[in-house]
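This part of the workshop introduces the protein records we will be handling. To make this concrete, we reproduce a full record directly below:
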Amino acid sequence: MSLTDSSGSDGRSLVHKVYEYLRDGIIEGELPPGTRLLERELSERLDVSRIPIREALPQLEAEGLITTLPRRGSMVTQLTLRDIDELFSVRTSLEVLAARLASGQAAERASALLSPAFARAELATDEGRQPEIAAANAAFHEAIVRLSGSRLLNSMMAPISARVRWLFRLTSDRDPGVLCTEHRELYEAICAGDTELAASLAFVHVERGRRPSLESLAGVLPAGTDPGEEDGLG
C-alpha cells in the first residue's frame, strides 16, 4: 500500500494521511491493542519516509489511541472498562453543554449543519451498513459540538473524538434503530431552539448507553486500575 500522493501534495497532508490510516486501523480493529507501531515497518508498508510517521504518532498519543513506553516504542493502547466509564462521564458533561449551546444557534444554521450529519446516520441505519453506522453516529455528535460555536468546547472535545468513535465501533451491537430515534429527537430539539429539552435529551442519550456498553465490553476489556493506584494508561 502507498500513501504517496503523485499530485505533489505537501508534507503536512502526507502526515495527515498517515495519521488517518493509523487512526482508522486502530478504531476498526485492524491494529488491535498491543500492536507495536514500528517506524521502519510502517515506512515500508505505506511507502513513505519515517518523517510523516514520526510526526503523526504524537497526535495519536494525544488522543489516547497509542501509548509510548521507554525502550518499547509506540503501541496501540489497551482500553479498559475504567477508561470507558470515564469517557462516558466526560461525554455526559461536555455533550450536554454542546447540546445546550447548539440549541441557542439560529434554526437555519442548526439545520444546515446537523441535517447532513443526521441524514447520513439515518441512511446508514436504514440500510444496516456497519461500520458506517458507528462512524456516522460519531460524526453527528461531532457536528453538535461544532454547532455549539464554542472554540474552547471544540478544543476540549477534539482529543476524545477518536476515542468516542472507537467506543461506538466496540459497541456496534447496540440497537441502531433506538440510537437513531434518540438522535432524531435530539436533532429536532436543537433545531427548534428548545435548550432545556436538548440538554435533557443529550444527558439521557449518553447515560442510557453507559451500562449496556460496560456490560457488553465486560468480557472483552480488562477492568483497569482503580483511582489512586499507579498512574498511566490501562
